[in-house]
Q: What sequence folds into this?
């Protein structure tokens, strides 16, 4: 499906400008995200989520599910709260002092923000890849083995080697770095660094991987590699990706969520969002009238 | 005219040069259609003229001030009859001095040697003419420069490049001041040390284990012949520095870690300035704190435990010096830890690491080279510290590593060697320079290492 989308993107974009099928002809925010925000047996579900930075509210009453082995893309103009929302899902926002999250967020039915949930354990289950590649100033091997060592995933060196090799394989980096695992990860190219960060994230076998604009600092070839990788990873992992590139969202995701200034406006199958958006704001954004 | 007045006039002249050239450039630009048709902004034309006006004149004046006395003395001596020509350098100075005193009226003119009297008169005359001459030359040079700067103003003149070249040289000169000062100090210490090593063999100094710099002045005096083994001093220095570092490094580092990673902004806002105040306490104050409070306390505590602690101990000096260095270590380490990018922390936390794991495994290693650089700078500081050890560590040059005993350090010995009236040709006094040279070399090497480490640190992550 992903490959088909890649070839279809251009046609899709043309098609949808020709046939305006927006259902909601209003620029007001819908009470509830329109389209299909909920799925059966969700991996994660978010209900009535509000996020505040001090007095300022950044996210308003968001309701959405993330399905098992799904790739969900979050798009929207800059500053619309996509990254904030993503960082709320694995409690990375805990590190920001002024940040408060309200609402019910669950992973496999467990409340993420309950007192019983340890944010450290949560982050081991919900991994994250950041906008700018951020390998540690350590060797490639140590970068990948960092997580497994912390969580005691390998008792012997051989097991650790195996995890490192497998993670680098899955991240499509093994062939390029297998002869120089002892060299610093910071010496790799930008695209390789980002794949190293993905390898690092999958080395601890998370259930969900959050990606915050993983390709925005990369060139088109490196971007294509990461996108391929996302398609492969979705067989084993649930992925939520924030992106500024609508083409990328169209190419890699199954469902797309459109955020506008902290409001979740529309969630639909990706094909539908890009061919027949239901909300006026979504349509305006994907046809390039703003954003 | 007096030199100070001359300078003021010169400054006024160069200000006038600025205004005139500035005005002329603007006037020249007007028929062309505005100052954008000039090569440079009017400011640069003005600056160029005022530099031309002031710089050559000031250089000339400086040369005059440097060389006028020797020239005048030479002329003066040439005029003296052969009977009064000095025979030696000391004689020469004496002669010049008496002429000088006669001229200024410090020496009574009654009954003075008529030859010298006429020489004194000649001196006054020479001085006056010289002053007049230099005033005339400097002012005419300034006026010439002003005229040159004014005449040359034209839309094609590349005034900006010329002015910038002058300012660049000025910056270079300022940068050279530090380098030349270091070089000058090093050379003066080096030459005095060489004189010392002519009297005392280098090997005795470097490897001798006894330090007792008292020397007999007359051969019939009873007293030591002086021995100049520097090892006890360096052992003492190392001992005290080590105690200081044992206090300062862990406390400084951990307080930096707390401030950078855990502290609330409010606490940080209070604690950081407080630490910096600690760095602002004069070392003299630390010194008497060590001598009057810490050392007696240690002695009593030691007695309570059945240990003999001398009233002036390495421990007291080292502890207080350690406290003094804490802000050094913590402030440098704090900067380095804060310089580790937030993305590193995010990356680690995003993999399910706890805060302490992140600090231990990512932040600390990333900051380590910078921290090492900071610690080495602190070591240099500890080795060079004087006041605390003078007051709290004592003067006895014992070779011991027992921190409860009195030791002395290189800096303390330099102080005691040079305090009071000294003859500058005895090895006892010259030894201070040799010690200073050694200390200089040691701290230089440490600073060099520290700078290299800090440089390497810059390449760590990007």
A:
């Amino acid at each position: 499906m992903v490959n088909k989308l890649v070839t279809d993107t251009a046609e899709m974009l043309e098609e949808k400008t020709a046939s305006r099928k927006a259902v909601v002809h209003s620029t007001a925010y819908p009470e509830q995200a329109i389209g299909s925000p909920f799925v059966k047996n969700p991996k994660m579900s978010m209900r009535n989520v509000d996020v505040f930075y001090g007095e300022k509210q950044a996210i308003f009453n968001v309701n959405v599910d993330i399905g098992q082995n799904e790739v969900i893309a979050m798009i929207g103009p800059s500053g619309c709260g996509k990254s904030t929302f993503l960082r709320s899902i694995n409690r990375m926002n805990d590190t920001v002092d002024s940040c408060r999250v309200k609402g019910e967020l669950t992973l496999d039915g467990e409340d993420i923000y309950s007192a019983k949930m340890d944010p450290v354990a949560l982050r081991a289950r919900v991994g994250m890849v950041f906008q700018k590649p951020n390998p540690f100033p350590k060797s490639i091997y140590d970068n990948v083995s960092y997580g497994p060592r912390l969580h005691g995933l390998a008792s012997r060196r051989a097991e650790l080697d195996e995890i490192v090799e497998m993670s680098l394989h899955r991240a499509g980096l093994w062939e390029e770095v297998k002869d120089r695992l002892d060299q610093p990860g910071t010496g790799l190219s930008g695209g390789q660094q980002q794949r190293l960060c993905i390898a690092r994230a999958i080395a601890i076998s998370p259930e969900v991987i959050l990606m915050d604009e993983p390709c925005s600092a990369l060139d088109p070839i490196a971007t294509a590699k990461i996108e391929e990788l996302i398609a492969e990873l979705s067989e084993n992992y649930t992925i939520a990706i924030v992106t500024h590139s609508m083409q990328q969202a169209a190419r890699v995701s199954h469902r797309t969520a459109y955020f506008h200034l902290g409001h979740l406006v529309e969630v639909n199958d990706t094909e539908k969002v890009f061919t027949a958006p239901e909300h006026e704001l979504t349509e305006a954004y994907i046809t390039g009238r703003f954003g | 005219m007096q030199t100070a007045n001359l300078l003021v006039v010169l400054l006024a002249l160069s200000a006038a040069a600025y205004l005139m050239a500035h005005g002329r450039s603007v006037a020249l630009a007007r028929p062309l259609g505005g100052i954008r048709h000039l090569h440079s902004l009017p400011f640069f034309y003005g600056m160029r003229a005022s530099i031309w006006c002031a710089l050559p004149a000031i250089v000339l004046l400086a040369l005059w001030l440097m060389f006028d006395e020797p020239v005048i003395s030479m002329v003066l001596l040439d005029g003296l009859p052969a009977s009064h020509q000095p025979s030696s350098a000391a004689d020469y100075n004496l002669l010049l001095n008496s002429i000088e005193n006669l001229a200024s009226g410090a020496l009574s003119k009654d009954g003075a040697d008529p030859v010298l009297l006429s020489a004194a008169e000649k001196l006054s005359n020479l001085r006056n003419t010289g002053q007049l001459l230099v005033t005339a030359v400097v002012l005419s040079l300034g006026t010439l420069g002003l005229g040159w700067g004014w005449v040359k103003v034209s839309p094609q003149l590349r005034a900006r490049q010329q002015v910038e070249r002058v300012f660049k040289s000025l910056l270079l000169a300022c940068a050279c001041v530090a380098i030349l000062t270091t070089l000058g100090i090093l050379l003066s210490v080096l030459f005095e040390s060489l004189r010392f090593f002519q009297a005392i063999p280098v090997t005795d100094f470097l490897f001798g284990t006894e330090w007792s710099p008292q020397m007999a002045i007359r051969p019939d005096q009873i007293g030591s012949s002086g021995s100049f083994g520097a090892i006890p001093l360096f052992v003492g220095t190392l001992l005290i520095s080590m105690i200081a570092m044992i206090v300062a490094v862990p406390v400084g580092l951990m307080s930096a870690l707390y401030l950078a990673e855990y502290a609330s902004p409010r606490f940080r806002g209070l604690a950081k300035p407080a630490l910096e105040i600690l760095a602002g306490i004069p070392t003299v104050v630390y010194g008497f704190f060590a001598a009057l409070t810490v050392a007696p306390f240690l002695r009593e505590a030691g007695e309570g435990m059945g240990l003999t602690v001398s009233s002036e101990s390495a421990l007291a000096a080292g502890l207080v010096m350690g406290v003094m260095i804490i802000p050094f270590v913590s402030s440098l380490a704090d900067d380095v830890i804060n310089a580790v990018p937030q993305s590193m922390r995010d990356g680690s936390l995003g993999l399910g690491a706890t805060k302490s794991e992140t600090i231990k495994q990512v932040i600390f290693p990333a900051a380590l080279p910078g921290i090492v650089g900071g610690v080495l700078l602190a070591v240099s500081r500890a080795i060079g510290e004087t006041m605390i050890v003078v007051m709290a560590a004592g003067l006895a040059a014992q070779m011991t590593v027992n921190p409860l005993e009195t030791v002395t350090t290189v800096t303390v010995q330099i102080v005691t060697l040079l305090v009071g009236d000294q003859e500058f040709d005895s090895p006892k006094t010259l030894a201070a320079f040799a010690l200073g040279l050694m200390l200089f070399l040691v701290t230089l090497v440490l600073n060099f290492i520290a700078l290299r480490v800090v440089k390497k640190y810059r390449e760590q992550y990007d």
Observations:
- The mean pLDDT of chain B is 86.
- Chain B touches chain A through 23 residues (CB under 8 Å).
- The two ends of chain B are 61 Å apart (CA to CA).
- Residues 399 and 456 of chain B are 38 Å apart (CA to CA).
